[in-house]
Structure formats: structure tokens, C-alpha cells
Amino acid sequence: MSPAPEIHTDQQPGQRSGGKQAVHSAHAPRPAGAYSQGVVAGGFLYTAGFGPQDPATGEVPGTVGEQTAQVLRNVRSVLAECGLTLDDVVKVTVHLARLHRDFAAFDAAYGEFFTAPYPVRTTVGSELMDILVEIDVVACAGE
Questions:
Q1: CB distance 90 to 135 below 8 Å
Q2: What's the pTM value of the predicted model, to 2 decimals?
Q3: Which of 19, 81, 98, 108 is 20–30 Å from 66 (CA)?
Q4: Cα–Cα distance between 4 and 9 in angstroms, integer?
Q5: SS3 of 79-128
Q6: Quick one: three-class SS letters along 35-66?
Q7: Distance separating alpha carbons of residues 1 and 19, to the nearest angstrom
Q8: Residue 128: exposed, middle, or buried by beta-carbon count in 10 A (0-12, 13-18, 19+)?
Q9: Per-residue confidence (pLDDT) for residue 142, from 0 to 100
């Protein structure tokens, strides 16, 4: 397990946290609404659902494999803000626009980022806005 995270937050001075701290990475896509990229609470980091947008250009790769890789790079950037890696991830939720068609290609790309012991994972088919994959994770952030 990694040491306790150093958290870079977007919380305003004097703002009540309620036992949670928002996390922001300049190396992941900016939120498209009223939500944080991640929140640390109760010893865990919970990320928002990330799409495959390149944070520097806004471009979206074409294939589900390429999109999966970009999504996981985005997730990895938020984890890194807390001193965490993909090895600290305990739960992954995946939304695929074309579950039956794209599952094998998604899983192959996903497998390039995670090693045993693998986090638990739920993969569902979802209607997504102009992307093929969205992923959020829960990571153990220490005590």
C-alpha cells in the first residue's frame, strides 16, 4: 500500500469539507459540469467517470482500444495527484457504448494497464455521448 496521499485540492479556503477533499489534476480532462475529478474520503479516492478526451487537445481517439488507453491515462493522472498508482485501485466501473461488439478489444487494452491482483470490475453497456468508453475507479488512499 502507498503512503498517505499528498492531496492537491480545488477546495476554497474556509469551505467546509465534510470529511472529503476534492482532487484536481491538470493532466486529466477538466470536469464538464459541477463535479470534481476525484474525491478522497474515508481512506479511499473516488474518481469521476473519465472519457477518452486528450487533456491537452480535447481530441478523442477512434477505436475502443485507443479510447480505453486514453481513459486509463486520464485516471492515472488523477491517481498520481494523490501519490497513487493503478496498483492502488480496488474497484473499476466501465461503461461501453457497444458492450457486445467492443468488449474483447476493451479488455485487451485494459489488461495492458492492470496487473494481478486485479481490482474488481463491473462492465455495463451504456448510452454514451460521442465516446465508446467511460471509466471510474475507487482506489485505496491509505489511512
A1: no
A2: 0.86
A3: 81
A4: 15
A5: HHHCCCCHHHEEEEEEEECCHHHHHHHHHHHHHCCCCCCCCEEEEEECCC
A6: CCCEEEECCEEEECCECCCCCCCCCCCCCHHH
A7: 22
A8: middle
A9: 79
- In angstroms, the CA 25 to CA 23 distance is 7
- CATH architecture, domain 20-140: 2-Layer Sandwich (3.30)
Is the pLDDT confidence value at 77 over 50? Answer: yes
Contacts of 111 (CB under 8 A, 6+ apart): none
Q: Which three cell numbers stand for residue 121?
A: 470490475
In the numeric block, which cell numbers belong to residue 143? 489511512
Residue-wise pLDDT for 87-98, tens only, equals 999 999 999 999
Whole-angstrom distance, CA of residue 43 vs CA of residue 58: 32
> What DSSP designation does 21 have?
E
- Cell of residue 11, nine digits: 477546495
Structural domain spans, the chain: 20-140
Between CA 81 and CA 5 the distance in angstroms is: 8
What is the percent of the chain with per-residue pLDDT over 90, rounded to a whole number? 85
